[in-house]
Structures are given as C-alpha cells and as structure tokens.
Sequence to fold (249 residues):
Amino acid sequence: MNDLVIMQNEQAVTTSLKVANVFRKRHDNVINSIRGLLKSKETQQMFEETTYINPQNNQEYPMFYMNRDGFSLLAMGFNGKKALNFKLKYIAAFNKMEKFIKGSNAIEADNEIEKEKLEFKREWLIEMRKQNVNKAHELRNQDVKLYLELGKVADDYQRPHMAVDFRNEAIRTMQALPVGARREYSVTEIGNIIGVSPIAIGKWANKLGVKRDADMSYRDHDGAWRYFPEALKVFQDNALEIQDDDLGL
Fold:
C-alpha cells in the first residue's frame, strides 16, 4: 500500500490501475466510471488519460491518472467497511506525498540562497510543517465529531450495529496521527474524559498553569486551546477538585 500515490508533474496522483487493484474492481469498469465523470467540464482537470502495456499479452490499454479530487469523486461511490478503510489509506497517502512535494519544492527553490539566510529559512520550514500538522489535527477532530454524530443518528433509527461501526471509526480516526505528531485534545475532549464541563477545564487550565506551559498546550489559529498528553495528566491528577468545583461543592 506504500505506492498508492506517486508524483507526476509535481502533483500527487494515483492511477485507475491502482484504484482497481486496491478496491478489487475490474479495470474496465473503473475506466467507464471515469469516462462518465468526464462528461462534466468541472472534472476535466482531475483526470488525464494515458495508456499502459499489459505484460501478459504486450497489448496497449487505456489508463487514467487522477489527482486527489479525481480520486475522491471516483471513490465516493465505493461503499462498504473495507472500502472506507481503503479510502482512509488513500487519503493518508495523498497527504504524505503532497507534504513531501511541498517540502522538496521549498528546499529546491533555495539552492542559491545566501548562507546567512539559511537558518531563517530552516526555521520558517519548521514552522510551516508544524502548522500543517496542527491543521491535520483539526481536520481529524472534525471527522471524529462527524462520526460521533452519525452514531447518534444510527441510535435514533435503532441501528445498533451501524452505530458501533461509526463510533469505532471515530476511535480509529482519533488514533490516526500524522507521522511525528503529538496526540492533542480539545477542551471538550478533556472535559468528557474528566467528567466536567469545558468551562471547568478552561478555568482550571489557568489555575494549574497549563496554558502558560508550551509543552502542555497551545492556541490554534482560530483561538481555541489545544492540550497535549502532559496537560491531560495534570487534569487527571486534579480530577476530584475539578469535579467538586464544577458541581459547586
């Protein structure tokens, strides 16, 4: 699964052959689905038709390259639990390749930069990559909230098996951290873990000095506080006091 996404003309792409193989579909059916999508003008930039040589008979056959948007549109119709897992792996592969391309381009562009500016550029790259990791966390947390909401809807319609699947997907999504990233929690997540309101967590984060320690927390670009595992431990160590305070005891 490591070569799902490749670089083509400085863009992250996959091929119809890879999609057919991963999702266990006939390649000609995948081709037909893509041709159906190409009837819309908006999809023209998502797919590029080419050919490949079948090693079994040395014959030439059609094949398509597709970018992330093209893949997302095509895979939208692939259903089932296994299909969902393959989609998630594809998304991770696209993220990894696009991150590599961005990093490579940034470094290559600086081949002629003056020596005194190299350290500044290095710090800038580190900061940009940190922001990308934070954004990945935010997107992951949005997905978790969606899966949990879908679980509630499934409960309302008395579909317990479907509800369990959605909640398991939320757990898997929470565990799917970007490479080299640290686990982080929102104020609501920590409140749920401790069993108190988000307001109580914000109040005690100030009292315990959590917000003043960069190793325990940071504020994202929307102004919301994010907490690392070190902060969670501090909250857990003081859980009884926080709970009593939240109840007004």
About this structure: The chain has a mean pLDDT of 80. The two ends are 55 Å apart (CA to CA). The first helix runs from residue 16 to 22. The CA atoms of residues 70 and 86 lie 16 Å apart.
